[in-house]
Design goal:
alpha+beta; Barwin-like endoglucanases; six-stranded mixed β-barrel; two-stranded antiparallel sheet; about 25% strand; globular; disordered C terminus
Length: about 425
């Protein structure tokens, strides 16, 4: 998935003062200003650092109290790792592809044993090595935002109402390992002005900015005129660097930082449709889409799971930032709805690193997948908090003599 991060500011005055757990860090009043969450790592440096002092390892007990959808997310990662191409991104430092597979299998077995939360916490600390993200400041600070699957009205044929297209991949487009095309294609403005891909339209939209958002978001559900819904997903891009429309609008005074959100941009362009091309053409990156059957899929081409999937900067060899498909532990805060209001609550959860994002381009940034539809969109738009990311790998001394990959392991019923 190659998409724009859906960023909103948290509801004011919802955090009480006081100390935060050490696995999160200070967040009173929201993320402090002045931090460069997009700070790049020095070339060749990994985002993860192994923790050697047990006192630095977080208490996982709260996360052990909820395993809903976790098996599903683990199985999706194992499905990705069963593909021979997944080996191209390992080793990650000292972490091998086989170790990642063994880690996920061992964690799944631990879930199956249904231990009490405190016992599960002890077992994790005994059997798994824990790595922390260096974050944006080399002290583990990561800015978390949220994303979701949008639902938009669209048509598979052009009509008087639906006249703004999105396109399928051009014939012959060949992608490199990082997903970019081998040879760059024209920029967004030239593609849209020249209509050079006429005849390759995937769908048509009534709103020009909605067509843009679907591309940058990288996936969506389309509600067709006959009432059917279909899914679409990222297929390829034109090889140009992503430029943020939101940043440009803030620079021009069309939005404020305090009111920056996807909904604010949608509302602005509904009221000012004449400005859509002026701003979207400032982003030369164009996303080609394809129809997607079933669930929303991420950049690993496996389904993403609400509140179990994260999107990070994967990078490419030899400068891999975060490892793909791995088991992570996230410590931050997320919004939850209480009646008609939003409240911020601690969030401690095991997650799988299964996606990337157009604006997720540094070790200090992470996106959490919230779900599908308007409610998920409201929650995603309120997600803007600091926190920590930890990754868990089975200790090498506990690795089985020969790790069976999911592709060669004996067949059996899927884990629930």
């Amino acid at each position: 998935m190659n998409r724009m991060t859906v960023v909103g500011l948290v509801v004011a005055a919802i955090l009480a003062g006081g100390c935060k757990p050490k696995d999160v860090g200070p967040m009173v009043g929201g993320p402090p200003s002045g931090k460069d969450y997009w700070k790049q790592l020095p070339e060749g440096q990994l985002a993860l650092r192994k923790l050697t002092d047990p006192a630095d390892i977080p208490d996982f007990t709260d996360a052990c109290k909820n395993s809903g959808l976790l098996h599903q997310a683990i199985n999706n990662s194992l499905a990705h790792l069963s593909k021979p191409s997944s080996r191209n991104f390992f080793p990650y430092g000292e972490i091998t592809h086989d170790q990642v597979v063994a880690s996920l299998m061992a964690f799944g077995d631990l879930l199956d044993s249904n231990p009490a939360p405190d016992q599960m916490n002890r077992t994790i600390r005994e059997k798994f090595d824990v790595y922390i993200s260096v974050g944006c400041d080399d002290h583990g600070t990561v800015l978390f935002t949220g994303y979701y699957t949008l639902i938009f009205d669209a048509s598979l044929v052009r009509t008087e109402k639906f006249k703004y297209p999105i396109y399928k991949s051009p014939p012959g487009l060949i992608k490199k390992t990082d997903g970019d095309p081998v040879n760059p294609y024209p920029g967004r403005r030239e593609i849209e002005q020249s209509q050079m891909y006429a005849g390759s339209e995937l769908a048509w939209f009534a709103d020009q900015f909605e067509a843009y958002v679907v591309q940058i978001q990288g996936s969506a559900k389309l509600r067709l005129p006959d009432g059917r819904q279909i899914g679409i997903a990222y297929a390829a891009n034109n090889g140009h660097k992503y430029q943020s429309v939101g940043d440009q609008m803030i620079k021009d005074g069309k939005l404020t930082k305090e009111k920056r959100s996807l909904q604010a941009m949608l509302d602005y362009f509904k009221q000012n449709p004449q400005d859509v091309s002026e701003y979207t053409w400032r982003n030369p990156r164009y996303i080609f889409m394809m129809e997607a059957k079933g669930e929303t899929v991420g950049s690993l081409n496996v389904p993403v799971t609400p509140r179990r999937t994260i999107a990070t900067d994967k990078g490419v060899q030899p400068n891999v930032i975060y490892p793909r498909a791995c088991l992570a532990y996230v410590a931050t805060e997320l919004p939850t709805r209480v009646g008609s209001d939003f409240m911020i609550a601690p969030f401690r959860s095991f997650m799988l690193d299964q996606d990337t994002g157009g604006a997720i381009r540094a070790p200090g940034r992470c996106d959490i997948y919230i779900g599908v539809g308007p409610e998920a969109g409201l929650l995603a738009g309120q997600t803007y908090r600091e926190g920590r990311i930890y990754y868990l790998f089975l200790k090498p001394s506990l690795m089985p003599p020969q790790v069976l990959s999911p592709a060669t392991a004996p067949a059996g019923p899927p884990k629930k």
